[in-house]
Amino acid sequence: MSKLHCIIIEDEPLAVKILSDYIAEVPFLDLQATFKDAILATEYLHTHTPDLIFLDIHLPKLKGMAFLKTLLHPPAVIITTAYHQYAVEGFNLNVSDYLLKPFEFERFLVAVNKVKTANKEKLTDTQEPKDFIFLHVQKKKVKILFADILYIESQREYIRIVTQKNTFVSKMSTHEIEALLPPALFKRIHRSFIVSLNKIDSYTAEMVELNGISIPIGRGYREVLEGL
User: Fold this and answer.
1) What is the per-residue pLDDT across 4-57, written as a single tens digit (0 to 9) for each?
2) Does the keyword field hold Phosphoprotein (predicted)?
């Protein structure tokens, strides 16, 4: 059974425990991490792509709704809160469900089954794998072939996509573009770099060379290229 990888963003320890216990009871859910505020979760999302977020609204530092608005391509989100007045705003942001605390396991199960069904339908609707991607570049959608991409570089809230003929800049994070790329063709080798495996000319433990360009391999990514 394919599992939905999920995280919890919640500052109340009791609420975290209840959600964790509920998640443990559902075979198709896999809890990967919990966070007491959205800032810590944002850092996690730079390098991970969960399928589902359980999100509280009243969080320290950055409120849940404000956090949700910062995500360009959010995963499924289930709001968990004691405040019903944010329901309309939540559904306007395309959340999967809205759970009012305290909620029973049965209501929780309805919400996660809804996410599971939607995820299954999305996979079923997927046709043959695409060999391209459309990205927002200077107020228009630009088609970029996977076969043309050399590497992708993070530039704060933007990414720079370097192809064999052109360079494109789009407003999104590296973890967001990584989720859209075929993992068999592209690998992140550094916090700021994703490279096309087919374009690699040579590499060492510290550096990758492609098309005459040297790109560093991050310390935590040195095992990524093993087996090439």
Assistant:
1) 999 999 999 999 999 999 999 999 999 999 999 999 999 898 888 899 999 998
2) yes
Please give the structure tokens belonging to residue 115: 């996410």
Closest CA to 174 of 50, 10, 1, 49: 49
- Domain map of the chain by residue range? 4-125, 132-221
H helices present in the chain, as ranges: 13-24, 38-45, 64-70, 87-92, 105-125, 174-180
23's CB contacts (< 8 A; 6+ apart) are 6, 8, 29, 31
What is the C-alpha separation between 47 and 74, in angstroms, rounded? Answer: 14
The length of the chain is 228
pTM: 0.55
Q: Residue 132 is which amino acid?
A: F
Q: Measuring CA to CA, how many Å separate 139 from each of 1, 66, 136, 170?
A: 41, 24, 6, 10
In angstroms, how far apart are the furthest CA atoms of the chain?
59
Give the pairing of strands 29-35 and 4-9. parallel
Q: How far apart are the C-alpha atoms of 17 and 172, rounded to whole Å?
A: 33
Domain 4-125, second-level architecture: 3-Layer(aba) Sandwich (3.40)
Q: Look at the domain 132-221 and name its fold.
A: OB fold (Dihydrolipoamide Acetyltransferase, E2P) (2.40.50)
